[in-house]
Amino acid sequence: MAGRIWFIVVLALASLSVKAQDPITIKADSSGVKVAKVDTLKSNYVNVGKIAARRAILRSAIIPGWGQFGNGLNVYRGVKIAAIYTGATLLTLSYIDNNNKYKEFLAELRDRQANGGKAVIGSPYYDVQTAGLTSAKDTYRRNREVVIFSMIGLYGIQVVEAYVDARLKYFDVGDDLAISIKPSIINSGTLFGYQSYVPAVKVSFKL
After folding, report:
1. ∠108-94-119 over CA atoms, to 5°?
2. Which of 12, 45, 72, 197 sits a CA distance of 20 to 30 A from 19?
């Protein structure tokens, strides 16, 4: 009998607890108008850093450097934006140069192949062996591919950097964080009846 009573009491308390956790309840005031009562226990925390980081990723993916600019322009971020576009410019010029050289040597090899494998008279590479032309063509082709992968890497890095910068901008370490560095002595124990001490540096963190 006592067990049944405790079971009924537990069910009643559970139902009251569930009812108390409703986020919104509708009640009528003295005038008869129904008003919504919001549960004050529900958290209204908004992660500003997470929102800013998502916005920075989207901006950087659309226009390189826009994410860094959107995080708040200062000298440090201005230098990063300048570095992004300087690197992109240098990579673009390198790609154009390697691509032109690759096409030039490729055209020379095709002319020789059409000429029965012999050098074409009047060609600037008339005295260069076919093996040398092939090696140069392959070298410039590889360089062109390396530049393409470098461009992709630069694009990805600036997107990640904008995300990290946005998260760190709103990261609060608090005022209680402190570090203390001071000299100390470590007792290494007794050896042959003598106390042995070793100088050391003591580092303490306060969180």
Report:
1. 10
2. 45
Q: Which two tokens mark 36?
A: 């919504």
Nearest to 165 by CA among 18, 86, 19, 65: 65
Closest CA relative to residue 137, chosen from 113, 106, 110: 106
DSSP-based three-state secondary structure for 83: helix
CA-based Rg of the chain, rounded to a whole angstrom? 36
DSSP state of 119: P
Place of tokens 């998502």: 54
Task: Supply angle C-alpha 129, 132, 134, rounded to 5.
Answer: 110
CB 163 within 8 A of CB 56: yes
25-55, pLDDT tens digit by residue? Answer: 455 555 554 555 555 555 677 788 889 999 9
Instruction: Label residue 205 by pLDDT band (50, 70, 90).
Output: low
Q: Which residue type is seen at 71? A: N
